[in-house]
Amino acid sequence: MSGTVRRPPLPGVLEPAGRTIGAEEREAVLRVLDSAVLCSTFGGETRALEAEMEALYGRSAVACSSGTAALHLAVAAVRFEPGDEVITTPISDFGTVAPILAQNGVPVFADVDPTTGNLDPVAVEAAITPRTRAIIAVHLFGAPADIVALRAIADRHDLLLIEDCAQAWLGTTAEGELLGRFGDIACFSLQQYKHITAGDGGLAITADPELADRMRLFMDKGWDRAKGRVHLTLGLNCRMTELIAAVARCQLEKVADVVGRRRARAEQLVAALADLQALGLPAVAGHAWWLFPLIVPGDNRRWAQALAAEGIPAMAGYLDRPLYANPVFAGAPVYGTSRYPLDRDYNAGLCPNAERLIQHTLLVLPWNEAYTKVDVDEIAQALRKVHAGA
Ligand SMILES: *Cc1c(COP(=O)(O)O)cnc(C)c1O
Question: Signal peptide: which range, if any (predicted)?
Answer without folding.
Answer: none
